[in-house]
Specification:
CATH superfamily of the largest domain: Bira Bifunctional Protein, Domain 2
Number of helices: 16
Strand order of the largest sheet: 8-12-13-20-19-18-17-16
Distance between the termini: 12 Å
Number of strands: 20
CATH architecture of the largest domain: 2-Layer Sandwich
Shape: elongated
Structural class: alpha+beta
Length: about 500
Amino acid sequence: MSAEQKSLKQIINFRKEKLNDLQKNGVNPYPSNFTPTHYSESIKINFEKLEGQDVVVAGRIMAIRRMGKASFFRIIDNEGSIQVFIKNDDIGEKSYENFKLFDIGDFVGVSGQVFKTKTGEISIRTSEITLLAKSIRPLPIVKEKDGVKYDSFSDKEQRYRNRHLDLLLNPEVKNTFIKRTKIIQFVRTFLDEHKFLEVETPVLQPIYGGANARPFITHHNTLDQKLYMRIADELYLKRLIIGGLERVYEIGKDFRNEGMDRNHNPEFTMLEFYWAYADYEDCMKLVESLIRNIAKKIDALEVSFNNSEINLNKPFKKKTFSELLSDKLGANVHDLSEKKLKKICKEKEIQISPDANIGQILDALMGELVEPTLTQPTFVIDYPKVISPLAKMHRNGDPNLVERFELFIGGDEFANSFSELNDPIDQRKRLEEQSSFKKQGDEEAQNLDENFIQAMECGMPPTGGVGIGVDRLVMLLTETASIKDVILFPALRSEID
């Protein structure tokens, strides 16, 4: 056992002794409930009305300054923090002796009068104090100098593993997750106002589809059947369009068994919506309006993201896939053979599988050469058919193109959209092609979902569909660099004892 572990064990044992002493004194260290009447910031804002008035607050003790028969301590609650003054003469000797057994980290309820100290700080003078929960494990020490915190539980790995402490000790983290909730609320409100219906579709699926990704696999004992955690909501939401629900959306968890980096977590939150009688142009306008609307509501129209200054208030740019990639290659991408494209990848040290198909090659080139350069909001439109098996053929008649866009901001992808393919014969052919890719070793190729095809054969109206990564949207609007900083409990490698 290390010296640090020994010290921690001693502190915990000491606090347990205090807990026992309090119980011997007739104090219930874990009562069932407590009802506060006011909160810290509201008291400060309304001080003129509340000065001299009785209030009841509750919160966690974060600092104690003892001075014999009187003490100051600070509590935090859902709104912020406030100073509390406690004196032996005000609460009685017995209560004050019990207070001496309180520690930083304890939850307390305080009744008292609002006043201002000689230094001008709004505080509460205690008339009664109640222990609400005894903390037996100490909180990390936060060092502060000249009012500036310089060690607020700073180790990132430990903060992710102990999010409860991270929220306690780093107010900016708490604010990020409050903003996340507001962003999702605004998404719902926006779509509800545009007459979309929120729905729920299965997370466990007998056949996974709707995206090119590796799934997580599980087994249902009663059905004696292999099931997959969904990688996308698409195929089930389209069934609802076929069933006559003309505007639907879902905000839910998707799961992909793939790499992890600053933009990827195996469990993530996705928004998908489908809009009957609309196309990718309609969806483009709606997505731009949605993002700008939310950014305006949380005062984030101009943000710093990925070392760039992003302006969400200006019209989003629109560029075709082929013109962007052709500009980077110095030649029309449609004139380049698969052999030539592979040679370019080798020359530019872009990693591709030896048996990569043309779609995978184009996707790799786009990802390495073009996407990182798309700083200001840019819709990349009109993708190759070979990498878009669920999108409608382009109305311009080009047999190699589909009506699809991806939205890039700060070099990252934020949205993917199609004029959805609604020709069941064409859809079957493309998914059969995807199945052949899978047999050739492409683990991310899509499956042929016979039930989905049969649903399409009943008739699906022209439809526009969109997928937006909610976590990435939160990253952008909160100016956060890593997806782990916007997911309360991100996936982490197990600690080795």
